[in-house]
Structures are given as structure tokens and as C-alpha cells.
């Protein structure tokens, strides 16, 4: 029971701090915070159409959150899911417009597999470097993110540039390679269902498979794991590769389902928002589902609120930043300090 | 042509170098500062606003440094006192800084992305224009601003400060063995906070240089990842002042040469990734060496 309470608090406290700060910001500019928050709620969840656009915005976050959580629970501080998302997304889109359209229905699984493969290969690099050479994974994955932005930015402006539509975009994928829209004309696409499947697979992997258990052991105590015969090196590489698969799939789903092509600025910081979600949820599947939907709602409601009021969309970034800063603070410490003072 | 690359290379090196100075001291105290980027952006924004309001580059630069310093100090408290993770908190601070500035810009100035203010006082040039006639380094000297000189001075005294003063040794001891610091009755957390405030101060200077060196216009993309290049530089230089400065100069010259390399047909986007790639390679090489030594 207390475990559940702890987790709930760990989830709620950073969010509450973020809401409090944004309420102060809103007060400072002369807006009523309660009005704004309730407007956000209605804009995020108020009708089936709005709910659909929230879920659509939550889709890439679900992928990146799961990708991040796979590594975090194994104690691997991978901040490079954004890079895998980009590389996987570009690879899937390129497959989607360059493979013959005659492949028909089989295009979708092929393109998704290509995205997953490239994502896996991308994060295999820092995984291998960490496992074999103990190269600090925070720095290597951070650097790889920038390298991924550079490579995809170069390719989308060079070899894969669309001749018809000018700058920074690839040609669109074949119609057969597009993921189906679930509620046209909204953008919610079957990639959301794939994201849910990935989330369920993650839950199963963590709770019901030996590899998932070993991952958690390695995250909790590397020396213990080594002593009981778990290969720490293999577990680290596996976590990175799985993370890359999920990140690459996320990019593929975003490219095939949402944009139907690859553009500069393909990932609007999804890797980092996903990290915030995974941190907030302490890697729990249910928590990540709720967190991704909340951040999805924030993003989709933020856009409409900017249209109808003077509140800038950047409020969403303020909230996200605060959540990331306070997501992993140790609540116990605050409690102890109070007790000492009292 | 070499004159021009040298001159613009030094101008482009300064902000990276200033930020890297803060970052390396911070890391010597055991904190990897991922939030340099966000603090640079804040520094640049404050510098433009204050410079336009007061007409003084000095007041603007100091204000930028102080604001970033306060932010750095507050940020370090979440790490040292609340146990936040320094990596995620740092990434979060970058997001928060960008969000807060974007919010302020569209609310207070009604602009999205770019802020042009009248009467922004730029950094002065140290030497009179006539030094331009000096061969090779003439252009470099003519464009030299006070913050570049400050950065070079800081690099020159840092080895002494870190290696031979009490405070410097405390900083390094904190990074290497915080429990020992506690055992001898010193406060490692306080030193970490001080070093993060120092990093904030220098990141603020870096932002001010970026904003006031030549253009005098603020843009949300002004820092363009330079905080992370600074991070790359002090990783590459293994937190040592001279090596870090050399890495910064290399990255600055690369940045300056990038525009010219385009004409030879090298894609600029790929050249932009070189610093990051170099850090990756340097990390791999140094790990291979140290592993071989232990075997």
C-alpha cells in the first residue's frame, strides 16, 4: 500500500509544483489560473474530437517514454531516444517512398521494421561503448542526439530532398505505407494503437520475463547482479537496443502516421518530453500512459489556448521544464528537514 | 582569408570558452552542468533588454551574469538539497529557460522568436581601428572585445586558482572525494553550490557576449547548442583549463571555417556535427587507453 502511496506522491508532487508555478505566472499576467486550467481541461478532453487530438499528441510521447524507461530501470542513463526517433523516422519514411508501391499492404510492416532496425542500430553504439569500454552513456547519447539531428538535417536537405516541395522535406510516402487514420479528419492514427501495444509489451517484459527481471536487478545493484550470474554487459546492450527499437518505431509511426514524410524539426523534443513522462511515472506502465496523455493534452490544448487568449504556448514548456527538474527529487528529504526544524 | 577566419573564429570561440570555463570548474566540483545552454540563453536575453534600457554594455553584461548566477545557484539547490538528478534537472532547466523566455517575449514584447530593441549598446572594441593594418592578426585585434580578454585572462589564472589556492583545492576535493571533505569538517554541498553559481555567472557572460558582440538582436535560437558545445569542450579537455580552451578554439575556428567549406562542397550541417563526433571519439580513445593500463 505505502508503495502505491509513494508512487502516487512521486507522480503528483512535481505536477503540483509545476501547476503552482504556472498559476503564479498566470496571476502575474492578470489571467485567472482556474479559468485557464479548466479551459485547458475542456480543450484537452472536452469532446471526442479533442480527446482524439490529445491522444494523437500523446502517441510519440508514449514511444519515447517507454524507450527511456527500458534503459532507466536498468540503471542506464540513456538520454538518446530522441536520436533513435529521428534516425528511425527518417529510415522508415525513406523506405516508405522509395520501395515500390506495388508491395501494397506489406509496406507498413516493412517500413516499421526498417525504422525499428535503424533505431536499434543507432543506440547499439552507445550501448556497446558503455558495456565494453565504460564510455559514459549520458555524454555519448547526448552527443549522438546532435549527430542524429545533423545527419538527418543533411539528408533531408540533400539526397532525400523532395523536388516538388522546396525546402527541408522528403517526398511523401506511398499511400499504402501510411498508417490509417482512426477518426478522420483528425490526425489520430493507428500508431497510437501500436504505442499501446508497445506499452503492454513493456509491462509484460518487466514483470514476466527473465530478461526484464535481470534488467531491474542490474538497475538496482550491478555487483549483486554479477554475483548471481547475470551478464551486466549483455543486459546493458539489450536495454539500449530495445530502447532503440522502441524509439525507432516511434519515429516510424510518427512519419508514416502523422506527417507522411520527414521534415526538418521532425521531433519537437519528443525524446525529452518522453523522458519527463518516464521520470514522473518512475517507469511504471500505467503512470507512463497517464503522463503521456497529460503531456499530450497540454500540447494540444496549449495550441488552441494560444489561439483564443493572450496566453503564450510557451507555458507548456515552463510546465514541462519544472516537472523534469522536480521529477526525481527525494520527497523524504523535505520531510526530514521539516521534522528537524519542528 | 586566413585573417578573416582567425578573426571570426575568435569571436565565435569566446562564448563557448566563457561557458566552458564555468562548466569545467563546476565539473571539477562534481557537477556536470547540462544547463549551460539555458543559462546562456537567459544571459543573452537579459543583456539585450538591459543594454537597451540603460545604454551601457557594462551594466548589461553584469546584469546578465548576475541573473544567470542566481539561476545557477537556485538550480544547484534542487540537486544538492533535494536530491534531484543533475542530468534530468539540467535538461529540464534548459526547457524551462527557453519556455520562460518565449513566454516573456510574446507576453511583454508581443513578438515570437526575435526581439529587436532600439539603442542596444554593443560591446566596445578594445583597440582602435588602426590596428587592422597589423599583418595576420590585424582583423582579430580590431574586433577584440573586453569579454574575450576576460575569458583569456580567466584561462590563464585558472590553473593557479584550482591548483594552488585553498578554495581551488576544496573545489577539486569536493569533486573527487566529497566524504573526505565532510570528514575534515568542510561543506562539500556548499562548494558545489558555489561552483554552480560560478558556472551560471560565466554562462551569463557567454550569453551577453553572444548577444552584444555584433548583432544586438535577441533570437530564441541565438545559442544554437553552444552550451552543449561548451560541454563537449570541457569533456574533450578533461576539465583542464588550457586543454579546454584549445578545444574551444578548435570548435570556434571550425564554426568560422564552416561557411567557407560550403563553397568547396562540404555540407555545413555535417560540419556542425564534428565537435560532437570528436568528443565521442575522444571519450572512446581515452577509455581504451585507461582500460589497457589497468589490464
Automatic annotation (TrEMBL), chain A:
Signal peptide feature range: none
Listed Pfam families: BPD_transp_2
InterPro entries for the chain: ABC_transp_permease
Residue intervals passing through the bilayer: 51-72, 84-101, 107-131, 138-156, 188-205, 236-256, 262-281, 288-309, 315-336
Membrane-related topology note: Multi-pass membrane protein
Localization (cell): Cell membrane
The keyword Transmembrane is annotated on this UniProt entry: yes
Keyword Transmembrane helix assigned: yes
Keyword line: Cell membrane, Membrane, Transmembrane, Transmembrane helix
Protein name according to UniProt: ABC transporter permease
Source organism phylogeny: Bacteria, Pseudomonadati, Pseudomonadota, Alphaproteobacteria, Hyphomicrobiales
Automatic annotation (TrEMBL), chain B:
Keyword Oxidoreductase: no
Spans through the membrane: 6-25, 32-51, 57-79, 91-109, 147-169, 190-211, 273-291
Pfam families (UniProt xref): BPD_transp_2 (PF02653)
Subcellular location field: Cell membrane
Principal location class: membrane
Membrane topology qualifier: Multi-pass membrane protein
Superkingdom of source: Bacteria
Keyword terms: Cell membrane, Membrane, Transmembrane, Transmembrane helix
Listed InterPro entries: ABC_transp_permease
Protein name: ABC transporter permease
Organism from which the protein derives: Hoeflea alexandrii
Amino acid at each position: 500500500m505505502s508503495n502505491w502511496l509513494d508512487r502516487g506522491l512521486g507522480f503528483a508532487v512535481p505536477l503540483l509544483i509545476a501547476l503552482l508555478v504556472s498559476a503564479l505566472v498566470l496571476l502575474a499576467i492578470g489571467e485567472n489560473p482556474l479559468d485557464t486550467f479548466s479551459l485547458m481541461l475542456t480543450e484537452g478532453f472536452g469532446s471526442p474530437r479533442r480527446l482524439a487530438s490529445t491522444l494523437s499528441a500523446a502517441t510519440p510521447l508514449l514511444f519515447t517514454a517507454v524507450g527511456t524507461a527500458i534503459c532507466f530501470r536498468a540503471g542506464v542513463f540513456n538520454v538518446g531516444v530522441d536520436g533513435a526517433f529521428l534516425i528511425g523516422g527518417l529510415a522508415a519514411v525513406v523506405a516508405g517512398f522509395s520501395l515500390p508501391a506495388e508491395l501494397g499492404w506489406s509496406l507498413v510492416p516493412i517500413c516499421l521494421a526498417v525504422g525499428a532496425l535503424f533505431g536499434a542500430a543507432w543506440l547499439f553504439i552507445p550501448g556497446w561503448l558503455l558495456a565494453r569500454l565504460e564510455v559514459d552513456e549520458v555524454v555519448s547519447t547526448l552527443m549522438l542526439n546532435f549527430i542524429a539531428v545533423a545527419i538527418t538535417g543533411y539528408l533531408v536537405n540533400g539526397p532525400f530532398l523532395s523536388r516538388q516541395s522546396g525546402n527541408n522535406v522528403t517526398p511523401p510516402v506511398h499511400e499504402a505505407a501510411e498508417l490509417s487514420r482512426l477518426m478522420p479528419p483528425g490526425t489520430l492514427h493507428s500508431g497510437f494503437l501500436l504505442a499501446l501495444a508497445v506499452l503492454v509489451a513493456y509491462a509484460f517484459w518487466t514483470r514476466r520475463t527473465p530478461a526484464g527481471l535481470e534488467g531491474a536487478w542490474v538497475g538496482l545493484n550491478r555487483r549483486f547482479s554479477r554475483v548471481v550470474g547475470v551478464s551486466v554487459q549483455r543486459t546493458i546492450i539489450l536495454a539500449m537496443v530495445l530502447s532503440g527499437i522502441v524509439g525507432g518505431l516511434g519515429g516510424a509511426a510518427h512519419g508514416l502516421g502523422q506527417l507522411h514524410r520527414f521534415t526538418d524539426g521532425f521531433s519537437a523534443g519528443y525524446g525529452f518530453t518522453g523522458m519527463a513522462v518516464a521520470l514522473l511515472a518512475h517507469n511504471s506502465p500505467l503512470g507512463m500512459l497517464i503522463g503521456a496523455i497529460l503531456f499530450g493534452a497540454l500540447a494540444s490544448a496549449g495550441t488552441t489556448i494560444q489561439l483564443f487568449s493572450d496566453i503564450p504556448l510557451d507555458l507548456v514548456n515552463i510546465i514541462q521544464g519544472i516537472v523534469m527538474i522536480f521529477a526525481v527529487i527525494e520527497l523524504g528529504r523535505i520531510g526530514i528537514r521539516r521534522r528537524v526544524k519542528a | 582569408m586566413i585573417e578573416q577566419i582567425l578573426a571570426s573564429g575568435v569571436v565565435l570561440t569566446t562564448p563557448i570558452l566563457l561557458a566552458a570555463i564555468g562548466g569545467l570548474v563546476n565539473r571539477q566540483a562534481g557537477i556536470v552542468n547540462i544547463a549551460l545552454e539555458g543559462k546562456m540563453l537567459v544571459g543573452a536575453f537579459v543583456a539585450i533588454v538591459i543594454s537597451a534600457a540603460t545604454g551601457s554594455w557594462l551594466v548589461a553584461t553584469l546584469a546578465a551574469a548576475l541573473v544567470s548566477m542566481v539561476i545557477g545557484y537556485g538550480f544547484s539547490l534542487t540537486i544538492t538539497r533535494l536530491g534531484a538528478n543533475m542530468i534530468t534537472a539540467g535538461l529540464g532547466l534548459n526547457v524551462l529557460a527557453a519556455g520562460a523566455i518565449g513566454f516573456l517575449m510574446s507576453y511583454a514584447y508581443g513578438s515570437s522568436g526575435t526581439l529587436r530593441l532600439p539603442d542596444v549598446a554593443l560591446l566596445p572594441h578594445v583597440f582602435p581601428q588602426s590596428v587592422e593594418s597589423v599583418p595576420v592578426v590585424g582583423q582579430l585585434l580590431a574586433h577584440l572585445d573586453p569579454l574575450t580578454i576576460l575569458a583569456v585572462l580567466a584561462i590563464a589564472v585558472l590553473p593557479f586558482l584550482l591548483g594552488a589556492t585553498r578554495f581551488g583545492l576544496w573545489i577539486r576535493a569536493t569533486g573527487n572525494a566529497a566524504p573526505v571533505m565532510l570528514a575534515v569538517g568542510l561543506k562539500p554541498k556548499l562548494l558545489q553550490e558555489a561552483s554552480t553559481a560560478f558556472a551560471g555567472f560565466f554562462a551569463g557572460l557567454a550569453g551577453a557576449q553572444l548577444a552584444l558582440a555584433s548583432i544586438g538582436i535577441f533570437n530564441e535560437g541565438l545559442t544554437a547548442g553552444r552550451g552543449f558545445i561548451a560541454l563537449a569542450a570541457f569533456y574533450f579537455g578533461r576539465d583542464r583549463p588550457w586543454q579546454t580552451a584549445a578545444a574551444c578554439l578548435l570548435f570556434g575556428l571550425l564554426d568560422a571555417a564552416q561557411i567557407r567549406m560550403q563553397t568547396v562542397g562540404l555540407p555545413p550541417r555535417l560540419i556542425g556535427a564534428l565537435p560532437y563526433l570528436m568528443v565521442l571519439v575522444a571519450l572512446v580513445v581515452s577509455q581504451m587507453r585507461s582500460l589497457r593500463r589497468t589490464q
